[in-house]
Amino acid sequence: MSLVKCASGAAAFTLIHLSDFHHCRPGTAGPDRFLNKRLFSLLSWRLRRGREHREEHLELLARAVRAEAADMVAVTGDLTQLALPAEFRQARESLSALGPAERVFAVPGNHDALVKVPWREGLGVVSDFMAPDSGGGQGPPTFPTLRVRAPVALIGVATARPTPPFSAAGRVGAAQLRRLADLLTETARERLFRVLLIHHPPLPGMVPRRKALTDAAALCALIRRCGAELVLHGHCHRLSRSQAAGPAAPVPVLGVSSATARSDHPERRAAFRRIRIRRGAHGWETRVQEHLLAGPDA
Ligand SMILES: [Fe+2]
Q: Which of 132, 185, 255, 290 is 20 to 30 A from 155 via CA?
């Protein structure tokens, strides 16, 4: 693990956050693959989305991410647009370009679960990037997933599940909420800096209802009770900073734009965030910096 020395001399942990690659490969699949919700997502891609994403933007960001030599890279879902096998293979290449699987930790997004896909053809292709410290096993990991890289605990939450056409909603679910409460409590006891990775934003009102987390209230109540030091999410395709109520102090909630986005608006342009974390004399200290691709007028 590489450690960055701050001005004070104390070691800082560097975490990088990217999201929403939306790799799209419709030409690689037969027509039978589109006799489901994929058809709607493909239409959206042809009409609008396809003009909003450029894979070369992610390649530029990946080069800058590698130069950062961060301790960990977090990726919060929507690796693919249509959940097609060729898209997952491309996602694997993109994740590998950010770093080795032990230093890159991802959670799925709603597009990665657009339709039911056999594990081996879908998220299984990137399973080592989603695996917890306890190992990946043969099938899907049990979420929440935990990786501890002291002084940081990264906790991956899965909110993606197949939904009807025109819905991009997510759900944590009662079983995952129960396990999450246990993990947050255990990692607090170990005095770790707890980072939740989640695709859908946890706060109500950040996206329209059809794109929202259906049990956001339950997740917010859990964060209020058990606490966390930071929440990182994707899904909104814009740089945002909000807060969730915590047991003692507000918990920062940071959203990042799509890593392939092209936009005139800086908050919607392809970007990653670098977060430096260190334990100071009076508690945790974090420094957050946004890295945006240069705009069209740069
Ligand atoms: Fe997305």
A: 290
Residue by residue, pLDDT tens for the chain (298 residues) are: 333 333 344 579 999 999 999 999 888 777 778 777 888 888 888 888 888 889 999 999 999 999 999 999 999 999 999 999 999 999 999 999 999 999 999 999 999 998 888 999 999 999 999 999 988 678 899 999 999 999 999 999 999 988 887 888 899 999 999 999 999 999 999 999 999 999 999 998 888 898 999 999 999 999 999 999 999 999 999 999 999 999 999 999 999 999 999 999 999 999 999 999 999 998 999 999 999 998 765 4
What would the 3-class secondary structure string for the chain be?
CCCEECCCCCEEEEEEEECCCCECCHHHCCHHHHCCCHHHHHHHHHHHHHHHECHHHHHHHHHHHHHHCCCEEEEECCCECCCCHHHHHHHHHHHHHHCCHHHEEEECCHHHHCCCCCCCCCHHHHHHHHCCCCCCCCCCCCCCEEEEECCEEEEECCCCCCCCCCCCCECCCHHHHHHHHHHHHHHHHCCCEEEEEECCCCCCCCCCHHHCECCHHHHHHHHHHHCCCEEEECCCCCCEEEEECCCCCCEEEEECCCCCECCCCHHHCCEEEEEEEEEECCEEEEEEEEEECCCCCC
11-292 has which CATH code? 3.60.21.10
Sketch the domain layout of the chain as residue ranges: 11-292
Taking the centre of ligand 1 as the mean of its atom positions, its distance from the CA of residue 80, in whole angstroms, is 9
Q: From the CA of 246, how far away is ligand 1's center (Å)? A: 27
